[in-house]
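Task 17 of the worksheet. Students: predict the tertiary structure of the chain below and write it out as structure tokens. Keep your answer in the requested format; marks are given for formatting as well as content.
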Amino acid sequence: MSEEKSRDRIIIGAGFIGFGVFFFILGILTLFDSGFIAIGDIMFLIGLIVYQGPKDAIQLFIGKSENKIVGTISFVIGLILVFLRYPFLGVIFQSGGAFPLFKNYLPKVVSFLTGVLPGGRMLLSIPWIARLAESGREGPIL
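Model answer:
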């Protein structure tokens, strides 16, 4: 794959992930509207597949560690609950499953947000956020 196509794929995937997170948060702010949360989930998963590629996305969910399997099961149960119109329980299950799946990406997200948000550097004065940002070099905190 050429470098331009790879760059475009990353930009499109990041856009889908961003809109997915936006709709997910919007669904929570509108008192757990299952429609917004479901749209956010679908866009997030599409963005993840486009951003990383199908093979790496599958490896993310079906890893060799036991935590990834438990996280995947919890995340999928949460998706099913949201689609069955039980958004509160679905979000709880998704949150419990998302942490073991995506905890390796937290240092990247924190460093991105500190660079983009106005006053983002002040976030690093909070001890647990600073530890999270520093853990990117040694691996995950947990």
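Marker's comment: Residues 25 and 37 are 8 Å apart (CA to CA). DSSP finds eight helices and no strands in the chain.
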